[in-house]
């Protein structure tokens, strides 16, 4: 059975709209925050130095589906699982719940890239040490 990374987020007032409901765009901020926390839990960072290269994981696709509203001061459980690991990219899903009930489910695809100071990022194969850290979180087919 695959592992999943779990954490929590408190819905802040600034994340809500005038009706007091969490604004849809805030879920994308939460997904990024959960991803960063996940990477740190693996000993990685948004920017990591591996084999002498500075690497990062720019997003190439993101979506979020909503099941029920979240409100200011709701405590959301966030569960991350990896859906696919490719040669250069990985796709993960984050499920948000409140007291065990679905709130939203987001999906992001990120590409492993070398980061340069003087030119655009360049995609590269996921390093073996990164693959070894991600694979335990790969969902069973």
Describe this structure in words.
- The chain has 141 residues and is of the alpha+beta class.
- The protein has one domain (5-137): Thiol Ester Dehydrase, Chain A (Roll), CATH 3.10.129.
- The chain is built from 2 helices and 9 strands; from the N terminus they run βαββββββββα.
- The strands form 2 sheets. A 5-stranded antiparallel sheet has the order 1-5-6-7-4, with helices on one face. Strands 2-3-8-9 form a 4-stranded antiparallel sheet, with no helix packed on it.
- A hairpin with a 2-residue loop joins strand 2 (48-50) and strand 3.
- The model has no long low-confidence stretch (mean pLDDT 95).
Task: Give a short summary of the structure.
By secondary structure, the protein is of the alpha+beta class. The protein has helices at residues 24-41, 128-134, and strands at 5-10, 48-50, 53-56, 59-66, 75-85, 89-98, 101-111, 113-114, 122-123.
């Amino acid at each position: 059975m695959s592992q999943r990374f779990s954490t929590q987020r408190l819905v802040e007032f600034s994340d809500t709209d005038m009706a007091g409901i969490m604004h849809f765009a805030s879920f994308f901020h939460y997904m990024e925050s959960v991803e960063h926390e996940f990477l740190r839990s693996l000993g990685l960072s948004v920017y990591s130095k591996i084999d002498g290269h500075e690497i990062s994981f720019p997003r190439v696709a993101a979506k979020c589906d909503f099941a029920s509203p979240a409100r200011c001061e709701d405590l959301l459980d966030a569960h991350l699982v990896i859906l696919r690991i490719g040669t250069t990219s990985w796709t993960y899903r984050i499920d948000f719940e409140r007291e065990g009930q679905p709130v939203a489910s987001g999906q992001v695809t990120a590409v492993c890239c070398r980061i340069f100071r003087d030119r655009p990022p360049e995609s590269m194969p996921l390093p073996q040490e990164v693959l070894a850290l991600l694979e335990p979180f790969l969902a069973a087919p």
